[in-house]
Amino acid sequence: MDNKAYTYSGEEIGHELADVPAADDGTKAGDIAVKIDDGPEGDAEKPTVVYIGLTREELLEYSDKTGWVVARWTILILLILGWFGILAGATYIMVSTPRCLPWWQTAVFYQVYPRSFKDSDNDGIGDMQGIEDKLDYFEDIGVQAVWMNPMYKTPGVDFGYDVSDYYEVDSTFGDMADFDRLLLTIKQRGMKVLLDYIPNHSSHHHAWFNESRLSVNNDYKSHYIWADPSCTGNPKDCPPNNWLSVWGGSAWEYEEDRNQFYLHQFLKEQPDLNWRNDDVKREFEEIMDFWLKKGVDGFRVSAVQHLLETEDYSKNELPNPEYEGNDTEEYNSLYHNLTKEYPGVHEIVQSWRSGEMDHYSTTGAYRFLTVEAHDSVDIVTSYYGVEREEANFPHNLNFLQIVDENGSGSGTRVKHHIDEWKEKMPEGSHPNFVLSNHDNSRIATRIGAGYARLCHVLLLTLPGSPTIYYGDELGMEDIEITQDILLDPAAKGDPAKSRDGARSPMQWTSERLAGFSNGSKTWLPVHPNYETVNVEVMEKDDQSILNLFKKLTSFRADEERVIPVGEMDYVIVNEDILSYTRAATLSGYNRYLVTMNFGRGGSTDDYFEQDDTLPIEGEVVISSHMDRNGDTVQLNKLFLQAGEALVIKI
Ligand code: NOJ
Ligand code: MG
Known about the structure:
The chain is an alpha/beta fold. It contains 18 helices and 22 strands. It has helices at residues 10-13, 15-19, 56-63, 66-96, 103-106, 128-133, 135-141, 176-188, 207-212, 278-294, 345-359, 377-381, 411-424, 443-447, 452-461, 535-540, 545-558, 607-610; strands spanning 109-112, 145-148, 152-153, 165-169, 192-197, 226-227, 252-255, 260-263, 298-301, 318-319, 334-335, 368-371, 432-434, 465-469, 567-573, 577-583, 591-597, 603-605, 617-623, 632-634, 638-640, 645-649. The strands form six sheets. It has a seven-stranded parallel β-sheet with strand order 12-9-5-2-1-14-13. Strands 15-16-17-22-19-20 form a six-stranded antiparallel β-sheet. Strand 7 (252-255) and strand 8 (260-263) form a beta hairpin.
């Protein structure tokens, strides 16, 4: 190291210091008070630098000078003001910066029915490898969360909703390694995975039921709901009470070994589990743990309303006063206050939310819960949780009713269903809208293919999170179900009641079997329209419904402060037209007018007159028929053809 001298002599520091008189010990200002030792002791060339500061009296003398006093106070006041300024600024930034939205509030949810999405092993049934082969497609169409219908081990009587092992994957779909790989690869692409959770009933082939049915003296004896015959004649003719299964007929099945009946609110192959038994609760917590630990992002709880029943099996259910038919076997003929929505069900959902679901939720990995409930909007929305949190949102299956029995929607009808949900959900909750699923006829079939595009515009511009059923993005329609191909056990042999129609294979290409399978046949027939209604053809057509869907999902993603969580105000609403504006709750974002014509003919309307916040013209950013994108339109005389919808930047 260079031993260069640091000579702070009085001269170098300045005249003022050098002129200060010497202190008592003979040193004077300008000599240094700090020794900078920069070399070995005794070094001949080592400099000694001496500096001495001002004495106390001198300092006091200086400090009382007006200039110094003013300077000191000025600095102090500036510091205090600065500190408050920083505090105010930080508070403003914290309050005004929009918080990151949770993934489940911005995601488009896509429902995959695994049997029907893509077959990789040519057995005519879709499987997990098939889904993995199509991951690019999820990204292409802009969905962020994939809900898979059950892929657990199952005899398949209710196509997977009869589970014989909740910890195993059914061989039809692959094995656990296939599942793990599928989960990983979906998540690597930043998408989320939801599974069905089926706590109300297991399969009659589940190991618990195999034990339970044997005797009244084993560890599983009360895993299910068992009740004695109600009379002493032939026990088979004496079910405990009049309860009916959702799909018709008695909800009780006689079991000779126990001389008792077991309850099944669905098929007799689906015995109801006993949710008053703590062992059952624990089993299901462990099942949840198992899948959450693997990295699954959430669940759709199936048939949640049926978890509990009265414990008094001598009670009959009363006739439903609203039932107009005369079929005493039909579920709707009774009023189900003893078997559905029975007190205690909500506490179970709360316990999952605050238990497993919260336990496995971490920053950046929030676990999501939704439930399936078929009831009035009042009851369904109660699954948001009234005092304690339950589902993030229940599936809004009531929204399917936007189409009436004649296959028509109308502006007023749709508005009613939007408002009903928004008004009844707890304040500050996040809505959800659904137009199709595996238990109902597809939207394009119910409303008519000519209105399927408009339905995309509706579903994807409403506030909240939409759930899309696979194939709906193509406008897929139900296949026709005849007696010879009928599979759905819920239909009880009546093709008209079958849910099979909405479960046909995904239409990928114009090739044989729509590119769904290379096998010889598929488990349900492919829709005959597959040569034109398929992904391959539609991807190439700029104006296809599929490209409309993609445009809408990317618009939603770009405008996440406006669409999923923004404000909505109606403009013109009548039998034909439904229109509303969408805007962010914060300033600095775009504003849009969305308008749809549900009518049977064209309609020209004056939106400008209706709403004085609207400009006289706007730019079409999305046209349902993909032929008016970029057009400037006059809002005082805007024409929409039947089934047409526009998203207009205003
Ligand atoms: C709800 C499912 O969505 C449906 O497909 C099933 O049949 C019932 N649960 C009964 O398991
Ligand atoms: Mg297969």
